[in-house]
Amino acid sequence: GYDAFYRHTPSFEKGIQYRIFVGAYPSQAQALKTLNSLWNSDISDQYAIAILKEKPGTQDQNHPREIKEIEPDAAIDRQFERKKQAVLISEEASPAILPDEAETNDSTKVFGNALKYYHDEQFEKALVLFNRIADRVDNIDLLFWTGICESKTGNYSNAAEKLTLLLAKEPDSPQVMLELSAILFKQKKNQEALEELEKAKAFQPPSEILQNIGHIKKRLLEDEDRFSLILGFLIKKNKLKNTDDHPDPVLQVRKPPRKFYQIGSSSEELLRSAQKIDPDNIAISYYLGYIDIRNNRLEDGIREWEKYLSKAPENERTIHLTKQMTLLTLNHAAIFSAGTIQKHIQTSHIQKNKSIVIAEFRNRCASIVDGMGKGLVSTIMDDLSKIDGIRIKDRIMVHTMSSLMNPDLIEISSAQDAATLGQYLSSTYTVWGEFTDISENAFHIMATVTDSRQSDENGKIDIKGTREEFSLFEKRMVFEILEAIGIHRKDLPPATIFSIEKPHTQNFDAFLSYSLGLEYLDKQQFTQARTAFQNAIQLDPNFILAKKAFQSTPTDIYFSPFFEQSEVLLKER
Question: Which pLDDT value is given to residue 410?
């Protein structure tokens, strides 16, 4: 076999040589392929040389190893072409691939299918396809995806090699450092794993990444003698600190960059081409959403992620993404609302279909906690969204726009304000109103459905009920709103009626706790919101809206990428 090195001799100071160990390979072809990639990377320059170190056989261990100097020219390519038959995965060992994938020469289509397998956690199939296009597609993101596939299939050495090479090209990537640390942990290379964690931590990444760093660090200390591991790391760090040489890049602390490298960011053109071929590939939507967000195309990012979440099965990745979506929605609502209010309203922009704004109801109750109006609106919106042909405006967007229109009141209190809100949000109808308590145990709800185009009243709703009946009068409100906009109960499919009539919860205290959680969420007090939602779930374990709200409430105010090696933390979680 062969050891491959990349030696870089800077042209500054003392001409100190940095030798980057790339990896160990069973064949010269594989070693040459990696070195060839380094020559084409951003870190190579005229002072760099590549080295192959041929390992001696078991009977020749006392003899010195042969060292071959490889110059940065076409010789590497020629040598690699002659050895190209030595591939990472033989065709005989490859898992079965669909016929059209096996026959196509279209790299874009193969790339899209590889991502699809990747997100379906069929990592062996994904790895075969990623490797098939590795020589044809100049894309460093492939290093990440193939590295994760190698790790998921148990090839930790290859996985570490891929991510190490990626970090050489994109050093501002604490996410990759975290993934590499987890792989090194799987290899029982705890010292190296700890060093990668310290590097990632020095970037001051979002708290969710810091939490993962803390979990892995704890596992490292449980897996090995705590004292010897920490002492070894500190001795190495102190030795480098006191030397006159330049510090090892592994332990060199950098200032946090304004922008971390995001996996997929180098693949935008390829991803968009793949989406044209396969518009239903939700794996593509996942990465395009991140790319759009990083480039401040928030509406596009929301659209891509909504497409992804609407079709993806619930798993750790989708739960993580719903939290990111909440942050994105809060950010987009603030930017959109501030910009829209400064513009002249054009009623021609109002959508002609049945789009509805449900404004937060004014709470005039003396005995009920704040937020009940938010909970009532949320349950009504969820029921109305079950009707085909109706578009319900997002609750966070409505709240943000209302608060900018009436900073001291927030809730809508007149037909003109209701029409204006509907016009700002390009909605056909606006539902607004108030509720009050007529006794300690009874409520009175009054609501109006306003046509946003002419400020005309389409219908009034007047309902009274007790705490025990609150779920029933919420359903009455839904059907009366539908009647006001011309949708009659008798025309609805029985399955839709059944779905609407199913109570969200019959536990009034759970409903109040859920409503309080929404109040905290709108104030971006996420810890308190999660506590309130969790309390609602404890009071009623079948309260689906509370479960969704708890899952989608962020734990941090920063965007944080998904951690692929999350199975490392299973013991901790």
Answer: 55
